[in-house]
Amino acid sequence: MTQYGCCEYWREHTIPEVFIAATTRFAERPAIREKQGNTWRTATWADYARQVRHASLGLAALGLHKGDRVCIMSENCAHWIYADTAIMCAGGASVGIYPTSSPEQIEYFLRDCSARYILVSNQDLLDKVLSVRDRLQHLEKIIVFNETMKAASETSDVFSFHMLTDIGRKANDADRNAFNELASSVTLDDLAVIIYTSGTTGPPKGAMLTHRNLMFEIAVHDKFLHISEGDDLISFLPLSHIAERMLTSLRPMMHGARVTFSQGPEKLASEIRDVSPHVFFAVPRLWEKFHAAITAAIDKASPFQRWIYQTALGISMRAARYKYNARKVPALLAGVQSISDRLVMRKVRAKIGMDRAHFVICGAAPVSPDLLMWMAAIGLDVRETYGLTENGSVAAIAPLSKRKLGSVGLAPLDSEIRIADDAEILIKGDHVFAGYINKEDETAKTLKAGWLYTGDLGRVDNDGFLFITGRRKEIIITSGGKNISPAQIENELKFQPLIADCMVIGDGRKYLTCLIMLDPVNAEEYAATNNIFHEDFADLSRNPQIFSEIENEISRVNEKFSRVEQIKKFRILDAPLKPGDNALTPTMKLKRDVFAAQHKAFIETMYAEDSMAHDQA
Fold first, then answer.
1. In 3D, which of 27, 589, 91 has the Cα closest to residue 363?
2. pLDDT in tens, 120-169
3. Residue 33: left if φ>0, alpha if ψ -120 to 50, beta else—which one?
4. Are 504 and 487 in contact (CB under 8 A)?
5. CATH number of the domain at 7-186+225-280, please?
6. CB–CB of 259/233 below 8 Å?
7. Is 7-186+225-280's fold the same as 282-472's?
8. CA 45 to each of CA 48, 51, 258, 374, 576: distance values in angstroms, whole numbers, following the listed order
9. Torsion angle, CA of 359/467/251/579, rounded to 10 degrees?
10. What's the mean per-residue pLDDT of the chain?
11. Three-class SS of residue 435?
12. What is the dihedral sign for C-alpha 574, 580, 582, 585?
């Protein structure tokens, strides 16, 4: 057998096999940490194994058959991954539902995947399910993580996770080999999970991923994104998202890492500083917030402190450029950088909780090269990745020995990346999904002769490095027939600390415009620093000085693009977007069509003068 720990080992085994091996190997090591009240509680791998064994046997006793779908709707917590692993060990397919989903969306997910069971975390989520229960004849049981449930006494369809594991415990006592026999029946080509896409351009589609798909991705991660025994991770992005599922649910099984579950966005910054994770994955939006926080802190520092930071940053930037071009940093520059890192950049990393990070991962959305350079300059080993739900997370990653700024890397292991004649990125390999559940037409459009048609646009250079240039469904075609990728322009703008998000508009128009969303925290700090009186956020968004700052940033960004790609007008929105807004996906990406529809009148004001001039003519 291939040596345990080699990436090829993972490709030969199912998730249940790897989980059993991990819980034996790391039995007394800490696996999970989460807060109960004001106290951190730790579960060992042996505790984890017991919960999964009993939950898996409990599901089997209820009548779960191989291939049956079981949904999980919960905030990130230990029970989420107990349930997830138990479902897969029992031969079922685990289906995550975002806890922010509306009752109508929950009904859609449950109906679409024909789920027989759903596990929820609390009474509020239970109430959502019960509100649509009568329309879901195939749903048999609702299992609640939280023990305090008023509905448990009202119907036999609802019971607690503890009751489920109690059923499994009795089954385990009756037959000590039952769990291993159940888990060993799972094969590589069995369905493991269904991941629903975020739905930025239409109704969510359930991507079916097999154990083979996920184990290929685990092998990729193990080769290029190695985690060590005892490493600390923090889980905060929704576990219904494939990247978070991979990093903080599946990957720790390989090497015995410990996962701390965040209590939510409000406490995340302090939690990151407390945990100081060894490996950290975040979408670009969070890295932009880190950059904005450091920038704001430096702006409030003394002139000497600002000079020290800018000098150290300049030194590190020069060194980072060598590394991104696979060139050795000159000895003198390396020596000076080492000193500035110890004196300055180490403190910067500590301020955002990255002082122990072996490496950090930025992915799941386009990112500005300037942001990547800043991350590298403060001393972070940045790994940018590219991938989709449909290929299990990573489709391209840079090798450790060579990186190119602006590129997401190479196809890993024995997978392939090809660029079609129309510039669409195609992917082939064991990580490519089995198709969309109940959507044969969509599957046929996406999977052709083993190739995954991503909908993303890109180019590959002579060394095989992939560069993302846009997304087909988001391409703007101006009235003059010019094709423009808005993501590249937006990423440049979001590097400005005052800008939380933005959307470039111009489809069918003569020129580009932009809607700007201010970062509430940074805007307030800017107002305080510059003595700007304002009554509320809306008042601040209309402030001439704020407008001038954004205008200057747009002028700076415009210089990087051709004339047709430059923004001619912009508007600042008077209210920030918040989680749960219909215009945001659960992973905080803008749904462009929804967002544009919400602000149609505002958008039209940027083109009104041209319409009036046309009418007068």
1. 589
2. 999 999 999 999 999 999 999 999 998 655 544 445 789 999 999 999 99
3. beta
4. no
5. 3.40.50.12780
6. yes
7. yes
8. 5, 10, 9, 37, 42
9. 90
10. 88
11. strand
12. positive
Instruction: Give the DSSP per-residue string, 84-123.
Output: HHHHHHTT-EEEEE-TT--HHHHHHHHHHHT-SEEEESSH
- What token pair was written down for 345? 């950049």
Q: Are 525 and 296 in contact (CB under 8 A)?
A: yes
* Residue ranges covered by each domain of the chain: 7-186+225-280, 282-472, 475-616
Question: Among 3.30.300.30, 3.40.50.2020, 3.30.565.10, 1.10.357.10, what is the CATH number of 475-616?
Answer: 3.30.300.30
Give the DSSP per-residue string, 141-175: EEEESSS--GGGGT-TTEEEHHHHHHHHHHHHHH-
What confidence tier does 320 reach under pLDDT thresholds 50, 70, 90?
confident
Element at 70 (helix H, strand E): strand 69-73
**C-alpha–C-alpha distance, residues 240 and 259, integer Å:** 16
Distance CA 269, CA 289 (A): 10
Looking at 1.10.1060.10, 3.40.50.10300, 3.30.1220.10, 3.40.50.12780, the CATH number of the domain 282-472 comes to 3.40.50.12780
Identify whether the C-beta of residue 402 lies closer than 8 Å to the C-beta of residue 380.
no
Strands 191-196 and 232-235: unpaired
Q: How far apart are CA 536 and CA 358, in angstroms?
A: 41
Tell me the C-alpha distance between 427 and 432, whole Å. Answer: 7
Token pair, residue 149, equals 């449930």
